[in-house]
Design goal:
Elements: E1 3-9, H1 14-17, H2 29-38, E2 47-50, H3 54-62, E3 68-69, H4 86-92, H5 94-102, H6 114-125, E4 139-144, H7 146-157, E5 174-180, E6 183-190
Parallel strand pairs: 1-4, 2-3, 2-4
Antiparallel strand pairs: 1-5, 5-6
Helix pairs in contact: 2-3, 4-5, 6-7
């Protein structure tokens, strides 16, 4: 059966609702309520992880999890674009935006490239998660940013970093990857509440 990795996207924030590049913001009121309501739906797991951001830690707590905070699950660093909308970036840095959209290995915003993000997230998945802490877990749940879910799916399917923006991930959605390092299958993409 292999390892089951359930990737839960954090609950909604103001940045999500306004379609801005993520900064480290808290959940909005609706997101906090929806995460608390979703708690009973969290998949069974041997170990829980979450990204270090406020939004991921708050989501995990509201879901009733006591996760290990893992910096390898950090969302993409958008550098100078963090907190800004795509339209704002297009108006102030059209060349940088065009470069970033055309070439996933570039990071004109001064943060992390999509290529580096997919590589980092793929290394976490292929680790396997929890390695070195006793036997490898059979079922993992991780609360992460939508872009981390996208990167994980792109890695698992061998689709490359260009696929990251072709995967829709809703707040509080759950994505299930099943397999083993280097051989993953996408089992399910379940919509969220946001």
């Amino acid at each position: 059966m292999g390892v089951r990795i359930h990737l839960v996207c954090h609950a909604s924030t103001d940045a999500v609702r306004a379609a801005r590049f993520a900064a480290d913001e808290p959940l909005d009121e609706i997101g906090a309520r929806q995460a608390a309501e979703a708690g009973p739906d969290v998949p069974r797991h041997d170990v829980a992880f979450c990204a270090p951001s406020v939004r991921c830690r708050s989501s995990a707590e509201a879901l009733g999890l006591t996760p290990v905070v893992d910096p390898r699950l950090t969302g993409c660093d958008y550098g100078a674009w963090a907190g800004r909308s795509l339209d704002e970036v297009a108006a102030t840095d059209p060349e940088g935006l065009g470069e970033w959209l055309a070439e996933p290995s570039r990071a004109p915003h001064g943060g992390e490239s999509l290529t580096d993000l997919v590589s980092r997230v793929g290394a976490w998945i292929d680790g396997p998660p929890g390695e070195g802490d006793g036997p490898a877990p059979r079922a993992v749940v991780a609360v992460v940013d939508a872009v981390v879910v996208r990167a994980a799916v792109a890695h698992a399917l061998g689709a490359g970093p260009r696929a990251v923006w072709r995967i829709d991930v809703d707040p509080l959605s759950t994505t299930l990857l099943v397999g083993e390092p280097g051989r993953w299958s996408l089992r399910a993409l379940q919509p969220g509440r946001g």
